[in-house]
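Inputs:
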Amino acid sequence: MPVRCLSRGGGTGGWRAGLIAGLLLIALIPTAFADPADFQRGAALIAENRFASLEEGVALVAASGDPQARKLLLALQGSDLYLRKSDRTLVVAARGTDGYDLLDPLTGEPAGSVASKRELKRVRINNRLRSQLRSAIAGLDLSHPDPAVRLSGVTEMIANLDAEGLDLLRARMPNEPDAEVREAMTTAIALGDLESPDPEARIASLAELKGTLHPAVRGSIRRLIDTDPDPEVRQAAQRATDSIEFKLQLYSLAETLFFGLSLGSVLVLAAIGLAITFGVMGVINMAHGELIMLGAYTTYIVQQLMPDHIGASVLIAVPAAFLVSGAVGILIERGVIRFLYGRPLETLLATFGISLVLQQLVRTLISPQNVPVANPEWMSGAWQINSVLSLTMNRMVIIAFCLIVFAALYLVMRRTALGLQVRAVSQNRAMARAMGVRSARVDALTFGLGSGIAGVAGVALSQLTNVGPNLGQSYIIDSFMVVVFGGVGNLWGTLVAGMSLGVVNKFLEPWAGAVLAKILVLVFIILFIQKRPRGLFPQKGRAAEA
Amino acid sequence: MRLEALHLDRGGRIFLALLAVTTLLVPILNLAVPADSPLHVSTYTVTLLGKYLTYALLAVAVDLVWGYLGILSLGHGAFFALGGYAMGMYLMLQIGDRGVYGNPDLPDFMVFLNWHELPWFWHGFDMFWFAALMVILVPGTLAFVFGWLTFRSRVTGVYLSIITQALTYALMLAFFRNEMGFGGNNGLTDFKDLLGFDLQSDATRIGLFIASALALAGGYLACRYLVNSKLGRVAVAIRDAESRTRFIGYRVEQVKLWIFTFSAVLAGIAGALYVPQVGIINPGEFSPLNSIEIVVWVAIGGRATLYGAVLGALLVNYGKTYLTGVMPDAWLFALGGLFVLVTLFLPQGIAGLMRRKEVQA
């Protein structure tokens, strides 16, 4: 360290280094002892804008205990701190409506604005200052009233722990009110104790660190396994590592399961409409994918109509997509499919033709390119459970949405008159008609229901993948696989099949790669169909013979 | 083989006669008639016709299993593409050191991937007889294994259609992977010559056209012979009442298996003839969409007639070439509309229309 100081500050470097060390120590003493004048002096040193004076200035500001200190240091760290050329005072600049708005960092008050950055000179920092700033800010964070800020301060300190930081943590911990922050502090202190000369203390801290997942902790313990002179400590370190590794594996398992379930939810959403049209009615609807696509495009159009309310647009898109796809579905059923009942292979061809027409229609009317669909804010972000496991919001929403759609559909099929009639017609059309069920109307409504659900799935998919004319094609085969695997005519089968295929896919992925995993799943289904031609949950009774 | 199989096949006789005339005329009009004469047939047209003929052979193969055996295969494109890849591998190794990287042993894409030796499954493809054997064996074996598993466990109807689709989809994904050693995304291309003949020359193009015509005629006669034989009659019985045929004592699985395998081999041969004429084979040929298109050719031409399949393949592909040239946007509308209209109003296809006229007359 002195080398650079010497080269710049000449013979004064030595005492400066000593002063910095001393000031850092002062920084560790609770703020009650701080001198408010230090803040002004430190700021003045920073305003000199030389690396050597900056170090001193940062230390003084950090130790001052002034309420503005943290903001000043953050601005310096984020390269937002400038000198105004006209009067050489410190300002914090932020881009405003025209030019830059300035803040006085000493008071936090606005300090006018400038038209361009030419009137300002940035206070430059180097790597060493950066690390000094990091620990100084972390130290200040520890006394911040917000527990979240304190926690991030401790986490920051764990990542680059030094003796001073450790002393500060020791001083703070007994007074820390928040349990979570206290736990992080305990971890940090135990991590510091790993360097203690006393083997007993090292073993005790290893016991403390057993379940900690912070990456810095893992590194330190692993170092101990190889280098510690005491065999008992080495053993304890090995045990601690093992328990940490086990925990990590558990969490990565949980993460894969979560990814699998979210992929499975997408599959179930895409397939569940098909479970109605194909599973219950026996219609092979190759245009199913395009009905999904229509749902996704409906989301796009709804967002175009209300660009200021993206958050609400998705919620409005759900019923809108249901109506659009449902209406198109009824149109398809009345126009084409009803003439083809009992000829499943012909239905396949006709609906395939419809799918081509729908694709081209979207290409001609909207655009052959993908269209942008915005994600609402409430779907972004993540739920950070601990340092290795975080569940992203959009995946959680998809899983929840899938379950809601499934439950709704299940209730419709089980608890409503329409559901009863649909099941009756699918089991024995002639008998149902004899009982007074208007089978033609039931067919149209069932097909509309299945198509509408496809549209709803499209809303969900629009949040996950690109929305383009080919969106449907990529899901049609997967959807058929899920329905066939689950057992035709069985909603539960579709749910179980979709979820398990999603999970299996995600578990295979790290081992085989995404494409190969998909191929393996396809091959698995082909082989599975050989063994159980009617799927996981075959229909029983006479309906199975049809 | 005696031609008595054609005795009752008037459509087939007309088709074969037309094919013979075309095969004789086109080379003369291409090679002997000067280029500025209105009767001249350009080499581009010859290649286009050759391509259509391979499609027609593929359609005949699909008609054999769909029209006569009741198996709607949505995966016949896979057998076609496999035959094409086998031929493509031979053509690839014929390039030798004329590739971009000039490596005499490795195709360009392998040099590009930093591979140092030929993968084991490429060995032998430098010999034409081996490649020709593979054109038959690879699709045949796949169809045999797939059919053996599937027919034995009595997967039928829609389920069968869907897993054939899964088969070709899985193969498409696999061939898209660079690690598979088949050129990944780009497939195999930049072919130079076949059996020493330059692929760009008019004479080779004519040769390939004639070969395609002969293969189509041979395939047609073989299928006609097959469906007129006792085996063919059992096949129709299976199509119409599978369980009943089984109860009577026929070994339904065996019949299905052999006819399915035979059909896959025909598709493979069609693919092998297709590749040198279009000059490229890539994983897109495996896409489920392609396989469905084949089924549509058959449906439009009229199934269970064989010549209807040829007619459908030629008409739809001509329409495709024409429409995608004139108004590209309209092609999918036309094709999609055609599917719907044909299935609704022409369940027997165009061949059915002609037959109905015959009956009236």
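The radius of gyration of chain B is 21 Å. Flag for discussion at group meeting.
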